[in-house]
Amino acid sequence: MDAHAVAAQATSLLRALEGKRRLLVLTHTNPDPDSIGSALGLRHLAREKLGMETDLALTGRIMRAENKAMVSELGIEMIPITELNLDDYDCLALVDTQPGFGHTDLPEGRAMDIVIDHHVPPETPSGLSAPSFSDIRTDIGATSSMVASYMMELGIEIPADVGTALLYGVKTDTADLSRNVSDLDEKVYYHLIGRVDRRKLHAITQPDLPLEYFQALRDALNNIRVFGPVVLCSLGKVMNAEIVAEVADLFLRLDSTRTVYCGGLVANTYHISVRTEPNGRDAYYLIRAAVGDEGSFGGHGSIAGGSIQLPDDGQRTLKRLERRLERNILQSQGLEGMPLSGLGDT
After folding, report:
1. pLDDT at position 280
2. Which of 28, 41, 112, 302 sits between 20 and 30 A of 57, alpha carbons compared?
């Protein structure tokens, strides 16, 4: 998309907001830095250009240590949706996700007026009416880049806290411009780099980690399964889904690894994260092959995630699922019969 097209999108977004009284911005259930950053950026845009009162809704929990540090350091208030009266809002926006994704809980009976995202659209339509404004660009590395580009086109000054949130969103989803990166991501990154609070950014990227993190890491090291360039890891029952993604990120650094699948059970929901090396196979199609029609999934470039609802959280049910997933993964990767090893054998 060239500069003229981006400017046209920014203008179209303003038209969708004009005449509205109050905006509510939603993300996927347990928001990550890109979703938090893009939500904060959209709120700033609506307030600066239209003076619109705007709130950020939270439908799940903020769990990862970096994400908690982000909202704390930057003073970002995300209000649990159960505490809101949705009739107070005549405009609903959804960022960094789309209706129809399994990890996104939307208010029943309310269509989205605005949808901004960079993921491959869900294969199953949501059944909701089309939004007034939709900007879905799968070639962009971060939704924060898209929201920041609107403000750049509209001449909106970006204050330090908003700039820090947007930059951190771009940093995390593109791994500091090393994966899934587009020209727009680079342009936004270098525009924002001089508009951040460096002390707060450091505090966000280097937060204290809870004991549960290291316990999960110990379990991961004990349960890693290596099939040549593919790593599989089951964490069993975990406190939250974010640790699954963190371990997947970590194991991608294992020498000669091209793809990582990591899973963990939270209550009756099995969460799975997929990571691939930059310029490797698209993680979206890898997780689709693994999960099939058992659950919901989404992804972009080298990052994907999904979840499967189980009838119970029993060990037998969990093991049966993991055997099915392993079979699907090895078949999709062409690794049936590949010798298995663990860390002690590599």
Report:
1. 73
2. 302
What's the pLDDT tens digit per position in 283-292? 888 999 999 8
Architecture of the structural domain at 212-336 = Roll (3.10)
- Give the start-to-end residue ranges of the domains of the chain: 3-205, 212-336
Tokens 């727009």 -> residue: 184
3-state secondary structure the chain: CCHHHHHHHHHHHHHHHCCCCEEEEECCCCCCHHHHHHHHHHHHHHHHHHCCEEEEEECCCCCCHHHHHHHHHCCCCEEEHHHCCHHHCCEEEEECCCCCCCCCCCCCCCCCCEEEECCCCCCCCCCCCCCCEEEECCCCCCHHHHHHHHHHHHCCCCCHHHHHHHHHHHHHHHCCCCCCCCHHHHHHHHHHCCCCCHHHHHHHHCCCCCHHHHHHHHHHHHHEEEECCEEEEEEEECCCCHHHHHHHHHHCCCCCCCEEEEEEEECCEEEEEEEECCCCCCHHHHHHHHHCCCCEEEEECCEEEEEEECCCCCHHHHHHHHHHHHHHHHHHHCCCCCCCECHHHC
Q: Please count the CA atoms within 13 angstroms of the CA of 346 that sit on its side-chain side.
A: 17
pLDDT digits (tens, 9 = 90+) for 37-50: 999 999 999 999 99
On whether the CB atoms of residues 75 and 161 are closer than 8 A, the answer is yes
Q: Point out the residues of the chain with pLDDT beneath 70.
A: 1-2, 124-127, 343-346
What top-level class would CATH report for the domain 3-205?
Answer: alpha beta
Helix axes 3-17, 33-50, angle to 10 degrees: 70
Does the predicted model carry a pTM greater than 0.90?
A: no
d(CA 129, CA 131) in angstroms, rounded, equals: 6
Q: Which are the contacts of 304, defined by CB distance < 8 A and separation ≥ 6? A: 273, 274, 283, 284, 286, 287, 297, 298
Report whether 166 contacts 158 (CB < 8 A): yes
